[in-house]
What does this fold into?
Amino acid sequence: MSGRAGRRRLVLHVDLNNTVVAADAVSGLGPREALNIFLSTATWGREGADGEWQWMSDRPSLRAPCPGAVSYYCRYGRAQDFTESGPGQRFSSLHAQHLRLLEWPGEPHRELSVQDGHGKHYHFILPSFFRLLDALHRNGRDFAVIFRTFGTDLPRTLLALRSALAGQHSQFPALRDLALPVVLTPGQIRCSKREVVLKRGAERLTTREDGRKLYDYFSSLEGIGGFQDHFDW
It folds into this structure.
């Protein structure tokens, strides 16, 4: 244990796309499309006897609201225009409301904001993540953050975090008080039937001889960094 009053040190493994970043470079999704896809994963219904989709709840939720409900995403897959046509139009006002909350205030920032195809600028990293960092700092917690993703947004995300922790985020200037180093070099995790191999810069670890190595490695990390996981595995 470490930190104040013997509290356990936190090592937060955080998914990137559709969790902290409302965009996806691999799929070419901006905030508008990413929000549509997210809403399709959190709205629930089922197919009726006539094959038509029937909503079982008017409120998005991360868990099924009742037995037999399936998310629109699970039934029909990715829908970038979910709230623009078809059954998902029911949630168009909710999409518009949350898209407004993602709008970037004032002058755009090269790393902290992202422009969509309509010329509007949005937060690249959700403000709630910065509130989390600030809350952990104010609470005196000793912590590290490890981003995990199958995608390719790690380099930009780490640059954006460095800018925010340098006090460049207009809404969170106090983040400069966090003594959190940002490791800009993304790591990779690759899997096979024989072993799991982790690489970051000159670092290389394998589980072939000791399966606990990766756990010990992650537990010892400081600051903020990230790793691309093995999608094909």
Summary: Residues 1-21+123-233 form one domain. The radius of gyration is 20 Å. The longest strand covers residues 143-149.
